[in-house]
Amino acid sequence: MYHCLRLFLLFFLGIFCTQALSSAQELIDHELHDTKEVSTPVTYTDAIVLGLVEGITEYLPVSSTGHLILTNHILGLDADTPLPDKNGNLVMVESDDGTEVPFTLANAADAYAIIIQFGAILAVVVVYWRRILSIALGMLGKDPNGLMLLRNLIVAFLPAAVLGLLLDDIIESMLFGILPVITALVAGGILMLFVARWHKKKHSSKDVDCPDLHELTIKQCLTVGFLQCIAMWPGTSRSMMTIVGGYLIGLNPVRAAEFSFLLGLVTLSAASAYKALSVGPLIVQTVPMGPILLGILVATVSAALAVKWLVGFLNKHGLAPFAWYRIALAIVVLLFLA
User: Fold this and answer.
1) How many domains does the chain have?
2) Does pTM top 0.85 for this prediction?
3) CA spacing 20 to 30 A to 229: which of 183, 245, 246, 317?
4) How far apart are CA 56 and CA 11, in angstroms?
5) What's the confidence (pLDDT) of residue 126?
């Protein structure tokens, strides 16, 4: 419980402090440009905050998307304010019914959150470079274990690849809100408490055999892959579902986390590339390159530190502290933001 409270307090302390800085920056901008509205939707302060939230929460089982939605709300980035391009003209996009609608601040913030996932991707490449090198050698026919690991990651990724393309528009239009995130936070917390208790009872012995990641079967990989699909609901957490899946197929906390990180490398790369291709030009028109690069940099550093920390923490304390954190966060959000 102590670890849960510490994580909870640190998150909100960081958000409120940086919100104060953001408000001060907006006041300064207003004083300097009292006859002209500031057109930068994501400031450097916002980039630091969002980069930290993305990097710290992406690989923790607490839902990075849920935290980013909440953070956007706190920072005031979820408004339906139409955004102009660099020439002052409104940026228009085609809606589902074929009509043109303005590209809004909320659209830009949601896309920005996915773009800075490149930082979290880079962090895993840096931390797990040996695994990445093994996979690369496997593709060249020089490391059979690396080739099997690549196969396992692709198999685990396929369910999300198919369902993600089919459900992306529905998810963004119906589930990117405060109440769906609260629901997912509580449900995920309860699930983790049950799984943590079950795993502790089943694997009470320290000598339980655990397969290496390249030794997993296709069935085991698909199990993790389909569980990852549940995390398409914002607030659920991709990391939570894949770590839970790792527990269910017999992995210990360290290997479950490692498989989650590597699978995240594939999944996040695909999601970020898809979003970059679909809305990248719109982001470039409305958000300066400086905040984009800063957000990616901050996300890279914070994600690398979070990944290293999580492995040791899971091994010592399991999933329960994160479960209580999720439930506590949901209660506070329900009371103050919903």
Assistant:
1) 1
2) no
3) 317
4) 10
5) 93
Cα distances (angstroms) measured from residue 190 to each of 187, 221, 310: 5, 24, 20
Q: Is 129 left (phi over 0), alpha (psi -120 to 50) or beta?
A: alpha
Which is nearest to 225 in space by CA: 276, 163, 140, 148? 163
Rounded to whole angstroms, the Cα distance separating 168 from 304 reads 28
Token pair belonging to 222: 């698909």
Give pLDDT, residue 264: 92
Report the pLDDT value the prediction gives residue 29, as an integer from 0 to 100. 42
Q: Which of the 8 DSSP states describes residue 103? A: P
- From 194, 189, 200, 235, select the one nearest 318 (Cα to Cα): 200
Tokens of 172: 């963004």
- Strand segments, DSSP code E, in 110-185 are none
Which residues share a beta bridge with 104? Answer: 82
DSSP letter for 130, please: H
Largest CA distance in the chain: 70
CA separation (Å) from 131 to 37, 86, 222? 49, 43, 21
The full 3-state SS of 193-232, as one line of letters, equals: HHHHHHHHHHCCCCCCCCCCHHHCCHHHHHHHHHHHHHCC
Give CA–CA dist 192/198, Å, rounded: 10
Domain span at 283: 2-32+41-336
Task: Record the tokens describing residue 26, joined without a space.
Answer: 């907006």
Per-residue model confidence (pLDDT) at position 12: 45
What is the rounded distance in angstroms from the CA atom of residue 41 to the CA atom of residue 43?
A: 6
Q: So what's the pLDDT on residue 302?
A: 96
Q: Tell which residue, 148, 128, 124, 121, has the closest CA to residue 137.
A: 148
Alpha carbons 272 and 119: distance in angstroms, whole number: 10
The label of the residue with tokens 């690069």 reads 293
Write out residues in the chain with pLDDT < 70, as ranges. Answer: 1-40, 96, 168-169, 172-175, 203-208, 337-338
